[in-house]
Specification:
The protein has about 270 residues and is an alpha/beta fold. Helix content is about 30%, strand content about 25%. The radius of gyration is 20 Å and the shape is globular.
Length: about 270
């Protein structure tokens, strides 16, 4: 049975560890997201605003900015008007904002909340919706195994995957105005990566510090992390020897890591 308090426990724990930790890649993604906000937007609602890493920057370009978040820990770092709540029940009247911003949130929403959240986002915006999501994430391959109970789950609590085709049909009553890919990387074929892990050329997946097992509540990475580190040390020499050959022989394809979609009301 899944822990009923899993959602709250996960986000409070995760935000306590990652608050204000912004990588160069995320910094670039934030800048690109802000560049997509239309000039005729004076009011913005950032749903799932986290610690305000984007929300707090909107003050310079919008006269009214509100951040909504379900984590008290994250919300305590937001410097604009803030609301503790969930996306399937937004406490605002229809068309309250020129734009609703939803960055890296939709992939996390529980199935019972997701449809209502999409409806609520459309209801409270008068003009635009701006969404960012991971691109073509292979959910099954991202799962980790709890070392205590054996439960397989997404360490980042990603529950659905998006691609350009699904984004086109995401909202009714809105047209996709701009679709932009972000941070393209070269990836090896999935079968090659799985095979390399199987024979020990690549270390097995680690159990992230922010991961929380939804079944038993396990959240200490000690045992599994040490095993992963040892495996990584043993295979590092092989990896250094094989990598140059693999780059020349094995074809890689470019794939955008993230997608950004700006919608305009019809």
């Amino acid at each position: 049975m899944v822990n009923d308090n899993f959602t709250d426990e996960y986000y409070e724990r995760a935000w306590a560890q990652i608050v204000h930790s912004i990588s160069p890649q995320e910094e670039e993604r934030i800048k690109q997201t802000l560049s997509l906000i239309p000039e005729d937007c004076s009011s913005v609602l950032d749903v799932g605003c986290g610690d305000g890493r984007i929300t707090n920057r909107l003050i310079s370009c919008c006269s009214k900015v509100v951040g909504l978040e379900q984590s008290r820990e994250a919300l305590s770092h937001v410097r604009v008007e803030r609301v503790l709540g969930t996306m399937d029940s937004l406490p605002f009247i229809d068309s309250s904002f020129d734009l609703v911003l939803c960055c890296e949130v939709l992939e996390h929403l529980p199935f019972k909340i997701y449809p209502g959240a999409l409806e609520e986002i459309q209801r409270v915006t008068a003009k635009y919706i701006l969404v960012t999501v991971p691109n073509k994430e292979h959910l099954a391959k991202s799962l980790v195994i709890c070392p205590r109970c054996g439960c397989r789950f997404s360490p980042w609590r990603h529950l659905r995957s998006f691609n350009p085709e699904t984004l086109v049909k995401l909202f009714t009553g809105f047209r996709l105005h701009i679709l932009r890919s972000c941070q393209s990387i070269k990836v090896y074929p999935r079968l090659l990566i799985d095979g390399a892990r199987f024979v020990g050329l690549l270390p097995k997946k680690s159990f992230p510090a922010t991961a929380l097992c939804p079944q038993c509540g396990y959240h200490q990475a000690g045992i599994q992390t040490s095993l992963v580190i040892n495996a990584g040390q043993k295979s590092s020499l092989l990896v250094r020897l094989v990598r140059p050959v693999a780059k020349r022989v094995v074809p890689r394809r470019k794939q955008a890591t993230w997608l950004m979609a700006l919608y305009q009301r019809i």
